[in-house]
Amino acid sequence: MTPTFSTACRSAFTTAGLVLLDASRATSTSAAKSSSKPREKAQGLRRLTRIFALLFVAAIGASSAATYLVASEPISINGRRELFLDDLMVGRLEGGAQRVFHKPVPREVVMTFDQPWEGNTCLAVAVFQVGDVYRLYYRASNTPGSAGGEKRGAHTFDAYAESADGRHWTRPALGLVEFQGSKDNNLIPKPAAPEGWALDALTPFRDENPEAAADALYKAVAPLYGPGNTADDWLSREKSLAVLSSPDGIRWTLMQDQGVFAQEGFFDSVNLAFWDPNTRAYRAYFRDARQPGWIRDIKTGTSSDFRNWTQGAWLSHTSKPSAQFYTNGIRPYHRAPHLYLGFPGMYEDREWSPAMAQLPDTEKRRKNVEEWKRPGPLSEVQLMWSRDGSTFELSPSTFLPPGPERAGSWTYSDNVAWHLVETASDLEGAAPELTLYAQEFYYIGDVRLRRYTLRLDGFASIHAPIAGGELVTPPLIFKGSQLSMNFASSAFGSLRVEIQDADGKPLPGFTLDDSIELYGDTVARNAIWKDNPDLDALSGKPVRLRFVMRDADLYSIKFEETK
User: Which CATH class is domain 66-102+460-560?
Assistant: First the structure.
């Protein structure tokens, strides 16, 4: 198919053509009458050129009101929920319609890692829900040589907390690991590593493989470092990822002595793995560094049994990352599992300067720079997504910046926990929200975990201003008998839906005039037409959807069977 120009663009080019034709005729007539005057003829041609240039600019300006992306073949979405992160669902945007990316809203601090076995370098937080229980795993760690770690000694453990609502967390007394003469703590026993090897922090997950064994319902990966290593000789370590399993997420066993991805990464970060429903295999993401230049980046690999893995391969990015990847935070989005969402912690060293000296916790920041003998690192969180798990597109703006300056902010490892969970809204009766947890006070004091919330599917939307705007999709093939939409409007905003054939012709019963104007703020509302036409009759056929909006945002769509 060939690109289709907007009405405004077509009109502008038509006008340009007519005026150019008139100007050409006038110039030709003038030239015929004054063929002995080459200077006047040249001037006429220059005028003609200027007219063409001006009208061409006008035509391009008119066309900027609409953006067209044409699909050569219908896109089969069946009953998938589709978000508007990328251009797949955008055939064209008209009027003032545009894609807008959204940032999470900061909420309360849900945990302060202030117990004797915790401290200033607690990290590697993994969160997921099993039944009615939210489970949280983290590295309970303190580094006394750095700011905020002075009141404790050096230690590193794995720890567990749980919650009934994702807001109020408790440290269950597991009674499994002794610390300072007591087992009254929430520490998880770490399995013994092979002799001479060291096992670092676990990153657990609930195995969603339907064939997972009862004694391996939970799995984890953890950095495994070789013998004879010292902190001063880290680069020469043998490095791999250990694979572990557990029946309950508390008592862990090494699945094999040898690590996987041996010497394929540095693993000095939050490495993770999960069951991938798209490929029906396990997938891992881990950190390495591109050479030359020691540029931190991410690799991925897959496995059918969690023991034997493919060789790690670098992720591809559709645009140049703004900084280095410190973490990756990737997992299929539970409401649209064909989309892999990542919340990577982006990292960069910034030289000590008067600007850095004006950030919060100046003296502690200065102490760390002197201790580490390197510039002051800063972090923030980005959003990225993929439809194949290997090639990722990055949001054009930062997802979670450090935010307003305050104590414990603008620090090294301002990262979010892996991954999203749903929690009840702060507004009674409102739809659930997405919750993320972000670290504060890393290498400054006792690390804190702050909750952030976002609308369900609310990473990006197609927004139309008060003046209005339209979205028309490429040709789609769906399965279902109703179209559910996640949208929000103002009190006097609106959304209407027209269904067209693949060539853009409105279908009888589904025209814009037939569409019932909707308004509100809901994560699931069905499109309605006057005579309740049979949407199921269009199932399996290529159609386009036209959304005409005013002061509204459209976050996602999903075809469903009638409930």
Answer: mainly beta
